[in-house]
Each structure stands twice: as C-alpha cells, then as structure tokens.
C-alpha cells in the first residue's frame, strides 16, 4: 500500500438525514460524491432548503477532479446547480437515469451548457486521477442507483450508496452480490454504509409489497385517487401507471418536477406508460371521479408543493372533495412529521379519505434494515467500518451492528460532518474537525442568511416587533409630543391603550434624561433598554425593538 494518505471528509449527511456529500482526497486530488439538499427543520424559519457547506473547497477548486452522483433523489442531487456554479467545468459522472434527472435541474437553472456530464453504466467503471471508480447496482426506490468501489494507491474503499437488498425490485434488477463478493476477495480497506434504517430490526420489504394495497384501493375507491410521492420516485410512478391500467383509470400529473421527470424517464425508457393514459390536469378535473387518478408532489408537508396547496384550498386547478382517496406514498423525513400531520388533518377536514403509513401499507422504505446491513458488512469483511447517511442515533445503531459482528471499537468510526478520517498504509485515524455548518437557501439567495438572521426570525415569530420613532425639532431638541409606536405580532394596539401609554411614557422619561447632543447610537440604545424593561415587566415578553431617530 502507498505511504501517502487517503483522506475522507464527510461534508453532509452525517448527523442528519439529507444533504449527502463526501469527498476523498489523495495526493492533492479530490473526488466529490453526491450533492444533496436537506429539507429545513421546523426552527429554520423562511428557509427553502439547506445545502452542504463545502466552502473550504472553493479555494481548492482546481484540485477537484470529478463529481459522482450515486442516484437521482433530492438528498443526493438537489444541490447540483449550486455545485456546478462553484465548480464550473468539473466532470460529473453518473448513471443514465440520474443524468436525465440532473439535466432537468441544470436546464431549468440555465446551467446545462456549463456542465460536463458523463454517462456510466450501472456496472461500468472509469479512472480519474489516482481513483479507479467501479459502479455496482444496489437496489433502492429508484432505478440506476449504484454503490461505488474506489481503488486508490492506499487501498480499496466501498461506498454502499443508499441501498436495500430487494430480490423482486420493480425494474427486475436486483443488487449485484457477485460484485460485492469480488470486492471482498480483493480486500476492502473501509466500508462506508447507509445507516438510515439502522434502528429497524429485520429486513426491509420489497417495493412490490405495496402492490396489493394499491390494487385494493383502486378496485374499491369510488372517487378520484390522488397519489402523493416524490417526483424522483420513478419506480413508484411505474407502479401507479400499472394499477391505473389494470383498473381502467386515466392518469394526470400535478407538479412541475413530477411532469418534467416523467417526461424525461419516459423518453429514456425507464417508464412504460400506455398510449393515451396521461391526461392534462385540467382535463382530469372534468372527468368522472371514478375514471381518473392524479400523481402529485408534496409528501413532506412543503406548503408550496401540490399537496400542501390542495390541503389549504389554494391549488389553482385541484380542489379536494368528499369521496377523494389520497395516498401518501412516502415516509416522513425526520423533522417533517408536524407539517405532514397538519396536512393530513386538513385533507380529512375537506372530506377526503387519507391513507398513509402505518395506517395502510402504501409505502416501503428504500433503505436496508438491520439484517441487510449486517449482510453487507459480512459480505465485504472490511478492515474498517464507517456508518454514513443518518442522524447520530442512526450512526450509533449501525456501529452497534458492527460490534455484534465482531468488529473491535478501534476499527469503527462514528463521526459527524466535517470530521476527516485518514488512511495510511492500512491504518486509519481520525483528524481534527473542519469548521462548517449549514448553508441556507432562501429564495434566490444562497448563504446570505446565517444563524443570526434565523435567530432574529425566531424572535419575530415568537414575540413580534415594535418600532418607535423619536423626533427632534429643527433645533435638535427632542419633541415632547407622544412618540409614534408601531407594533406587529406583539399586541393589537387598539385593545392595549394602557400598555401603549406606559411605553410612550417610558420613552419620554428616557429622553428627558438625555442631553440634546447625545449621539443617535446612544439614544437608540437607551430607549431600547427602557422599552425592553417596561414591556417585560408588563407582559413577560421580549419583542424585537427598533428605534428610529428622526
């Protein structure tokens, strides 16, 4: 083995669910893997998405040799437009379907002509710099999902990608056990394995396990059927197409990403949709309810997605009606449960029947449970084991499985984002953490909202704000008239006259103690402190206070 170190750095996806991204570095050459987003957590007010913090790489962009995308889900592809902007011209290697999904995103962002996309077969390989990369098929809830075998001068490392061992997948292409056995024969230095379901015993059911439930619903539902799922869940879309065909329903698509992905997957041959089955949403609205089904986005409670707008009656075309059956065919991403439950309740209020896991078997996970995770470790027999993809509790649970299989603790690394591991001559050690955090996407802004802004939004959401205007006359003296006070989200001014008087008097009292030549900064600070004291004493609240000196 080489005396030079191989360094691995998790940039996103460790300590959280989503925004998956990692890098390998050898001899000053860098290989990036995946570029995902994460849905914002409930305290990230106003944030649209969170992307990995790869800022430390921007000064080393000439050393980034390639980007590999393992599959087409948002938590692995959602940040690709940001990555292409920051690393223009860096080649991107991926499988055919994933390339199609990336092209949809890059075209929409007007970045396709700045991107270098290379298609690799699901069992293909290529070499870039010191890295020989071999793709191998791993089952997931989307076709063309791959794991990676990366041969370096320091040894062979295997990245499982998202996976489960489904022996009857929808596309008929199971995981490549032969390749895993071949890797084991060569000797695996380290295995980086998906931890999402590490707390769940047994094995994950096949994608086909939901088909009896779908058949039953389509056979007995008398009204419209609306199936909500991820726009990139191509296998699930095919299953809905199949059941629509079996029960004589036409299918409409709702959501721009759903429409674009279906169009692309159809063109590439990954979706087989009978001629005449697809109808426009406007046309579906005029059809007999029992003869139509609709596929929509919004299973994670996103208020701007189709299902979220339907739940509050704000979708321009679809209105939820009594007799509709709505199938939520996705598991909640941790942190989204509150939003999802709110939408389900609103759909029930509108008279719909809502089916969701665990009420009905309408979704199965695309991730391996404990027995499959143990099987992967046993097949590869790596020297070192590193759990990836998951919250810390999931990584810890995955590590416990390795201990059960006989791994000593010094050969298992449980780390979070930014903590590198270095491999030298067959030995591994943990390095100091690289500073980093969340990068927030808010509208068209990327990274311009930081934790300080989020804290301000929390204060505004919790206690509102007060603006008071302190006026001076033309000679610079403070006016004695009642100061102007404006509030939003704090109190209803018309019903709080006594409090308003107290606040006004507190401002005037403070101004009387200030000299006329006091600096504006001093005035703002003193008035703010005076208002804060009186408001807290009267209400036990701490609104944001803004003082304007006019």
The CATH homologous superfamily of the largest domain corresponds to Ribonuclease Z/Hydroxyacylglutathione hydrolase-like
Shape: globular
At CATH's second level, what is the architecture of the largest domain?
4-Layer Sandwich
Give the oligomeric state: single chain
Please state how the strands of the largest beta sheet are arranged side by side.
7-6-5-3-2-1-20-21
Total domains: 3
Mean pLDDT, nearest integer?
89
The CATH class of the largest domain is Alpha Beta
For the sheet with most strands, the description reads: 8 strands, mixed
Write down the CATH topology of the largest domain.
Answer: Metallo-beta-lactamase, Chain A
Describe the structure.
By secondary structure, the chain is of the alpha/beta class. The chain has 15 helices and 26 strands. The strands form five sheets. It has an eight-stranded mixed β-sheet. The protein is globular and about 85 Å long. The mean pLDDT is 89.
Give a topology summary:
Layout: E1 6-12, E2 21-26, E3 29-33, E4 49-51, E5 64-68, H1 74-77, H2 80-86, E6 91-94, H3 96-108, E7 116-119, E8 125-128, E9 131-137, E10 146-152, E11 155-159, H4 177-186, E12 190-194, H5 211-220, E13 225-228, H6 234-246, E14 250-254, H7 256-268, E15 278-279, H8 281-284, E16 292-296, H9 306-311, E17 325-328, H10 337-349, E18 353-356, H11 370-380, E19 384-388, H12 392-404, E20 421-424, E21 427-430, E22 439-442, E23 445-446, H13 451-463, E24 465-470, E25 484-488, H14 497-512, H15 520-539, E26 544-549
Parallel strand pairs: 3-5, 5-6, 6-7, 11-12, 12-19, 13-16, 13-17, 14-15, 14-16, 17-18, 24-26
Antiparallel strand pairs: 1-2, 1-20, 2-3, 4-22, 8-9, 9-10, 10-11, 20-21, 22-23, 24-25
């Amino acid at each position: 083995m080489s005396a030079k170190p191989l360094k691995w750095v998790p940039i996103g996806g460790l300590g959280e669910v989503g925004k998956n991204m990692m890098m390998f570095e050898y001899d000053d050459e860098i290989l990036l893997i995946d570029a995902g987003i994460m849905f914002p957590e409930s305290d990230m007010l106003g944030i649209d998405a969170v992307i990995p913090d790869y800022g430390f790489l921007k000064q080393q962009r000439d050393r980034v040799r390639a980007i590999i995308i393992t599959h087409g889900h948002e938590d692995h592809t959602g940040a690709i437009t940001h990555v292409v902007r920051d690393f223009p011209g860096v080649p991107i290697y991926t499988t055919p379907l994933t390339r199609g999904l990336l092209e949809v995103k890059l075209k929409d962002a007007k970045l396709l002509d700045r991107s270098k996309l290379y298609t690799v077969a699901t069992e293909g390989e290529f070499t870039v710099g010191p890295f020989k990369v071999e793709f191998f098929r791993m089952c997931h809830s989307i076709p063309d999902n791959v794991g990676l075998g990366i041969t370096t001068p320091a040894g062979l490392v295997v990245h499982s990608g998202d996976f489960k061992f489904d022996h009857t997948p929808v596309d008929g292409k199971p995981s490549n056990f032969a390749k895993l056995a071949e890797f084991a024969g060569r000797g695996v230095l380290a295995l980086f394995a998906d931890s999402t379901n590490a707390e769940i015993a047994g094995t994950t059911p096949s994608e086909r396990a939901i088909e009896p439930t779908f058949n039953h619903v389509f056979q007995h539902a008398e009204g419209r059927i609306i199936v909500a799922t991820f726009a990139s869940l191509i296998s699930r879309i095919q299953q809905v197409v199949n059941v629509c065909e079996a029960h004589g329903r036409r299918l409409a698509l709702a959501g721009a990403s759903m429409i674009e992905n279906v169009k692309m997957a159809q063109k590439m041959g990954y979706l087989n949709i009978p001629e005449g089955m697809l109808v426009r949403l406007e046309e579906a609205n005029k059809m007999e309810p029992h003869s139509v089904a609709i596929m929509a986005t919004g299973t994670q409670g996103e208020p701007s997605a189709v299902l979220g707008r339907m739940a509050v009656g704000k979708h321009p075309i679809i209105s939820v009606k009594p007799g509709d059956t709505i199938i939520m065919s996705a598991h909640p991403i941790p942190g989204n449960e509150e939003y999802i439950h709110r939408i389900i309740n609103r759909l029930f209020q509108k008279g719909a029947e809502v089916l969701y896991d665990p009420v009905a078997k309408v979704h199965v996970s695309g991730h391996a449970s404990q027995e499959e995770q143990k099987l992967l470790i046993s097949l590869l027999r790596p020297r070192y084991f590193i759990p990836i993809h998951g919250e810390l509790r999931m990584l810890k649970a995955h590590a416990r499985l390795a201990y059960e299989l006989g791994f000593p603790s010094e050969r298992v690394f449980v780390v979070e984002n930014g903590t590198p591991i270095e491999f030298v001559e067959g030995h591994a050690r943990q390095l100091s953490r690289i500073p980093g955090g969340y990068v927030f996407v808010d509208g068209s802004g990327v990274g311009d909202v930081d934790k300080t802004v989020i804290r301000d939004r929390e204060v505004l959401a919790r206690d509102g704000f007060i603006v008071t205007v302190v006026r001076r006359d033309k000679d610079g003296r403070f006016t004695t008239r009642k100061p102007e006070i404006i509030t939003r989200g704090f109190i209803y001014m018309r019903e709080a006259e006594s409090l308003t008087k107290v606040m006004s008097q507190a401002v005037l009292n403070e101004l009387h103690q200030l000299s006329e030549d006091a600096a504006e900064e001093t005035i703002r600070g003193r008035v703010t402190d005076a208002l804060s004291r009186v408001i807290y004493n009267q209400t036990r609240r701490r609104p944001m206070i803004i003082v304007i000196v006019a």
